[in-house]
Amino acid sequence: MSKNTILSIIVVLQFLAYFMVLKFNEPNYLLLFFLLGVVAIPFVRIKNNDFINLIVFSLLFIFFGVLSQQYSKQYEIYNILSSLFQGVFTYIFALSIYSLSNAYQYVKWLFIAYLGMLSFEFINLGITNVDAFNHILAIGSRNIVSAICLCFLILLLAIGAATGRRVSIFYPVVTFVFCFFLYGKSGIILSFLILLFFIIRCFSSKIVIFTFFISFLLLLFNYNNIYYYVIQHTNFSSGFESVERLEIIKEYINAIENDGFRIFFGVNIKDNLPMVLYYGNNPHNSFLNGHILYGLFHTIFFIILFFYIFIKSNNLLFSFLTFCLLIRYSIDTLGLFSPFDVSLFYIFIVIKNKLVNKV
d(Cα 318, Cα 355) in Å, to the nearest integer? Predict the structure, then answer.
């Protein structure tokens, strides 16, 4: 059995393992995700310096995580290590995908399988049964269901750009449709922006103009129906802003203003963040969640990572996809660290290895 075949089996099993974590809230599958990552190490393309850097940064995150929790006194070392292990093994997961010679095919079929599962759920639950969509996964609401669609799409587009594979418009269109019927604002907006970007970038000006013309006519003649559906049945009924998320950010800033050291070591949820406590210790922001766990070191690390991608890529698609991830991370506790980071880490690895052409 070739190395590529072994690695492809590992990649598929890791996808399935983490999906089972989300679907059934079974932590043993997360341990399987870690174990498969360990097995993948001998087969991935990684330089010695990169492996040393991975170890060094892991130790730094443990150090600053312990330091932060000693100050804020809220989480045990288990929470720090669990989050960090997810980050480390997701990076190895991204390396595995990067190392596969036929990664596009595997990710494409996994994406199709996920869309097929969603289609079955829509048929079974009813396409207008909004509350039922919150129970498709044991961990996470319908917003996480749509986030998986977005992350799959972003990863597929990134692999296509890195390997010279042309991605069919089917995937951006279907992603937008599913996100639309999952009723989340962020999913609808980001999937629409990706679809729009895809059309403008991949088709001739005549096709783009024709598409916009047809879309305008459809919108014009169905304005009342579309307006009623969007306002009454999606989260746009509460406006474009999320009041709760904005209040959590204000609450977090106020806690830091009351004690300046909290900017370095994070904020204690129980004593200072009643809204986050009310939502089950969920700050609905990946950056805030990372700051709570690891303090300022986590924030600086990912700011540098995002800037590195924006500056070094010289590729409009990669910059745009990273911007979409940045927005998604800002409105949910989704990544930084979690397996949802696989798209971000894949883009970073490709750029670091200078395999992306300027577009």
Answer: 12
Cβ atoms of 14 and 37 within 8 Å: the answer is yes
Q: Is the dihedral of CA 232, 234, 235, 241 positive or negative?
A: negative
> pLDDT tens across 154-208, in order?
999 999 999 988 898 899 999 998 988 887 788 888 998 999 888 888 765 555 5
Other CB atoms within 10 A of residue 306 CB: 17
3-state DSSP of 204-251:
CHHHHHHHHHHHHHHHHHCHHHHHHHHHHHCHHHHCCCCHHHHHHHHH
- Report the pLDDT value the prediction gives residue 239, as an integer from 0 to 100: 47
Q: What is the pLDDT of residues 303-319, one digit of tens each?
A: 999 999 998 888 889 99
What angle is formed at CA 16 by the lines to CA 31 and CA 99, rounded to 5 degrees? 90
How far apart (Å, rounded) are the C-alpha atoms in residues 245 and 250?
9
Contact (CB, 8 A) for 182 and 233: no
d(CA 232, CA 236): 8
| CA atoms of 13 and 15, how far apart (whole Å) | 5
Compare 267 and 93 and report the one with higher pLDDT. Answer: 93
Place of tokens 């660290």: 337
Span between the terminal Cα atoms of the chain, in Å: 37
